[in-house]
Design a protein that fits this description.
heterodimer, A: alpha+beta, elongated, B: mainly alpha, 40% helix
Chain lengths: 530, 152
């Protein structure tokens, strides 16, 4: 017992040392991770947004009263049978098509047996042998190794299957029992399994973000991780480069992208510390403790996973049809046509990014932001359409670097900010025509966010925030600043070019930020170089 | 009465194979076709040591009370091993005789689920509309089994 405590303390110290070492190493330009390769695979469970459950007609509303959406089948009373929900199958097919998977036109349901109080039947109906779709890939943006640019990466998927969700259990340790709510039991889930090809926590997190976006765009899942609509399990293992795969551990029930990243980072360091001290990593299930930021072992170590998969005898195979294979004489509500569903797919995020880049000449980063903020994109597109803008870049820079930044600082969504496309359009025009400076723009935004009934031009009139572009006025002020700071001017003329910014700052101060910076820079340079 | 007697007299003739064969080929063979199983062709028998029995008890939540039930289990498994002698190359597995039937697909609308009162009444223990269950999964202790053996 004492030895075990000592070993834990030793491990903790080692992990702390490794963290410090990796920070130092990162500063030096080398990385600890260059000696070790992380291998991450993800299993994502996405709750299908449908009115009723996968195999029964109970409702699926989030946060409904306890046990109020439970039918006899969900409670596994004997004699009840599963009946498949059309919407869930269609959602699975839409997802498979969006993720470029190969659909199995005939797929089968199986039973996965394990005992747990929130699984009343003692088994979960899933698709293990012959899932709805196999293979597939997702292209997503992730920071490159230097964390400077976003690069396009491709993640391969193993399979996609339909399965039942289990109920929710609250563990009451004091009373030594668990309280079970079966509202969630039986809701349709799509399980998406990726190949173990992610090399870092950031990559895994970027992939999940992209998947969340795709699912939201096609309307099959609301992707709210905090509400449990999207749950991610990560399998993490480490190995030295060119060695075979190491033993992996699985981190379950991660319900936010930040937790996903932190838990994978911790688990990588933990496994590296075990292997470097000569130990062996255990193949176990772990949970992420939010308070300590560590992963903790969840299940009994001797537990062997034997799910005794068997075919679900109450459900014949699920058959999908294409335009060529639709059988005659069968009612149309019993036919699921893949080609019809393919025609219903909307524009996917990656295609949208490419289109924005081509159409407006936006950078990768900007097009990515717009894809993630659809209301802001609407506003931007309106502005570009309504006005003959010479420089689309000004519009996108203002929308993203100024408007979105201001809205994020106040912790509100752009759609909730009541900023209209008209006001933002006016701001873009004003900046383009050099009527106001960026500093003034930020001040105007402050005012607009509090009172959105006014337009920018009104605000400028009311507060007299016109940009000073008058050449003589600017020249006078530059002369004043030069006269007031002889030492700084001498430093500049000696070669210290950085002090130039100080002089510009002084001019801005005198004009309370309302000067045309380009003109000031030009005039100041002229004056200093003569 | 006479008609019944007539039927009784004719029954053996009707059932005689020659008569039946004249109706078409029968699926019932003339002579028995099964052969006794050659033990040597079967794979080695599955051993049920304490570890395996523990594993099965944990998986299926059953209790093999004594050695006799374990013997019965191993005989049943040995009997099922005969299936391994059948050559199934090129044959797709069948999961159910209803495989070729169409799967009925239901429209997505809420038509049930308002059964809380009825369901909770059936439950043994209820706390504020939650079902109550014992905490987590309690692993079966291997020590209990070996102590039972010692007692015997």
């Amino acid at each position: 017992m004492v030895v075990r405590l000592f070993m834990r303390q030793f491990q903790h110290n080692l992990i702390r040392q490794l963290k410090r070492y990796s920070k130092r190493a990162a500063l030096k330009g080398e990385r600890l991770e260059s000696q070790w390769e992380t291998v991450i695979g993800l299993e994502i469970h996405a709750q299908i947004s449908a009115k009723s459950k996968l195999f029964s007609g109970s409702g699926t509303t989030f946060a409904s009263p306890i046990n109020s959406m439970v039918s006899f089948f969900d409670a596994s009373l004997p004699g009840t049978l599963p009946v498949l929900n059309r919407r869930c199958v269609e959602a699975g097919i839409l997802t498979a098509l969006a993720l470029q998977c190969r659909l199995n036109l005939v797929s089968m349901f199986d039973r996965k047996h394990y005992f747990y109080a929130d699984l009343p039947a003692g088994y979960q109906i899933t698709q293990q042998r012959c899932p709805l779709a196999k293979d597939g890939h997702v292209e997503y943006l992730a920071p490159d190794e230097d964390h400077r640019k976003l690069v396009l990466k491709r993640a391969r998927l193993t399979q996609l299957q339909l399965e039942q969700d289990s109920g929710k259990s609250l563990h009451d340790v004091e009373m030594s029992h668990s309280l079970i709510d079966l509202n969630r039991a039986g809701i349709g889930l799509m399980e998406i399994i990726t190949e173990p090809e992610f090399c870092s926590a950031v990559e895994a997190a970027s992939f999940v973000r992209e998947l969340q976006l795709i699912l939201q765009v096609i309307g099959v899942c609301d992707g709210k991780m905090e509400e449990g609509s999207l749950r991610v399990d990560a399998s993490v293992s480490v190995r030295r480069p060119s060695e075979p795969l190491g033993i992996r551990s699985e981190i379950k029930n991660l319900n936010s992208i930040r937790h996903l990243m932190r838990s994978i980072e911790f688990e990588t360091l933990r496994q590296i510390s075990i292997l470097e001290s000569g130990g062996q990593v255990l193949n176990e299930t772990r949970a992420y403790d939010v308070e300590t930021g560590e992963t903790v072992s969840m299940r009994d170590k001797e537990r062997l996973h034997d799910y005794r998969f068997m075919a679900e005898p109450n459900l014949p195979p699920l058959r999908l049809y294409t335009n060529d294979t639709v059988p005659n004489g069968v009612p149309s509500d019993q036919i699921i046509n893949v080609d019809e569903l393919r025609a219903m797919l909307p524009e996917l995020p990656n295609a949208k990014r490419e289109r924005l880049k081509k159409q407006y000449g936006l950078s990768v980063e900007h097009s990515n932001v717009f894809v993630n903020e659809p209301t802001l994109l609407e506003c931007f597109e309106k502005i570009v359409a309504n006005q003959n803008l010479q420089n689309v870049k000004i519009a996108s820079n203002i929308c993203i670097n100024e408007v979105l930044a201001a809205v994020n600082k106040k912790n509100i969504a752009f759609s909730a900010s009541n900023l209209s496309a008209e006001s933002v359009g006016e701001l873009v025009e004003l900046v383009q025509d050099e009527v106001i400076s960026l500093l003034t723009l930020r001040k105007i935004l402050e005012v607009l966010l509090q009172d959105s009934s006014k337009l920018p031009k009104q605000v400028i009139e009311e507060r007299g925030w016109h940009q000073v572009s008058n050449e003589t006025a600017l020249e006078n002020i530059c002369c004043q600043v030069i006269a007031a700071n002889p030492k700084v001017v001498d430093d500049y003329r000696d070669g210290k070019t950085k002090v130039f910014n100080y002089l510009i700052g002084e001019v801005q101060k005198k004009l309370s930020g309302q000067s045309n910076v380009k003109a000031v820079v030009r005039i100041m340079k002229q004056k200093l170089d003569t | 009465m006479r008609t019944i007697a007539l039927y009784r007299a004719l029954l053996p003739a009707v059932l005689s194979r020659r008569v039946i064969r004249s109706f078409g080929s029968m699926k019932v063979p003339d002579h028995p076709t099964w052969e006794p199983i050659d033990e040597n062709k079967l794979p080695p028998p599955q051993s049920f040591d304490a570890k395996m029995v523990d594993h099965l008890e944990r998986l299926a939540l059953v209790d093999f009370g004594n050695q006799e039930s374990i013997d019965r289990l191993s005989k049943a498994v040995r009997f099922a091993d005969q299936l391994l002698l059948v050559d199934t190359t090129g044959v797709e597995p069948m999961t159910s005789v209803l495989e070729e039937r169409a799967l009925y697909i239901r429209q997505d609308n809420v038509c049930e689920g308002d059964s809380r009162d009825v369901l909770l009444k059936v439950a043994e223990k209820v706390v504020e509309e939650y079902y109550v269950a014992p905490p987590g999964n309690i692993p079966l202790s291997a020590k209990i089994r070996s102590s039972e053996e010692k007692e015997e």
